[in-house]
Write a structure and sequence with these properties.
Layout: H1 2-12, H2 27-55, H3 64-78, H4 81-90, H5 95-112, H6 116-125
Helix pairs in contact: 2-3, 2-4, 2-5, 4-5
Amino acid sequence: MVFFVCLLVAQNFGSRIPNISTRQLPEIWHAILFTGAAVTAIAGPVMIRVLFAHKVRQKSRVSQALFLTFQRRLIMVSGITPYLALAAVWNKFSEFHACGIILMALYAVYYYFPSQKRIVHDIKMFRVALP
C-alpha cells in the first residue's frame, strides 16, 4: 500500500518520475476490474464463509485441516484485490474506479488479514477441534 501511495503522489503532483503507464486501457476495463475488486474483496470472501458455515453446520466439531483450508481460501481470494489496485494505479484508471478499487483492497487486506483475535473468534464460532 505504501507503494500505491508513493506512485499516486509521484504521478499526480508533477514529479520528474516518468509516466510508467505504457498504455491506457479502454473504459470498459475500468468497470470490469472495479467489479472484480468488489467480488474478490467483498462477495467472494462472504460466499466462502457462508458455504463453509453451511458445510459444517451439522458437525459438533470441525477438523483443523478443514478449518485451515477455509482460511487459506479466504486469504487467497481477498489477496487478489491489492493486485487489481496495482493495475488500476498503473494504468491510470478514472479517479472513481481507482479510488474504489484501492478502498476495496484496503478493506480486504485489513478485514481478512489473519489476526490472532479473528482466528480465535473463528475457532470458537466454527467449533474447531483443538489438540
